[in-house]
Design brief:
The protein is mainly alpha-helical. α2 crosses α3. The mean pLDDT is about 90. The protein has three helices and no strands.
Length: about 70
């Protein structure tokens, strides 16, 4: 749900345009099975925090509905 219109420095809106990542990081099936999150680990690294994918995977555990 959009709550604001992001206008970039060039005056263009991101609305109906979106953005492309500079780097594509996707978890593999093996990562998901082992509860590793390489995407979160990479994002943390970009923010200056060293985190193993196993630790990143434990931050937001999957909780199935009952």
């Amino acid at each position: 749900m959009t709550i604001a219109n992001m206008i970039m420095t060039d005056g263009k809106s991101l609305e109906k345009t979106g953005v492309l990542p500079n780097e594509l990081v996707l978890p593999s099936a093996a990562d998901m099975l082992a509860k590793r999150d390489p995407v979160m680990a990479r994002a943390a690294a970009l923010a200056g925090v060293q985190m193993q994918p196993e630790k990143a995977g434990s931050l937001f555990p999957i909780e199935w509905r009952k």
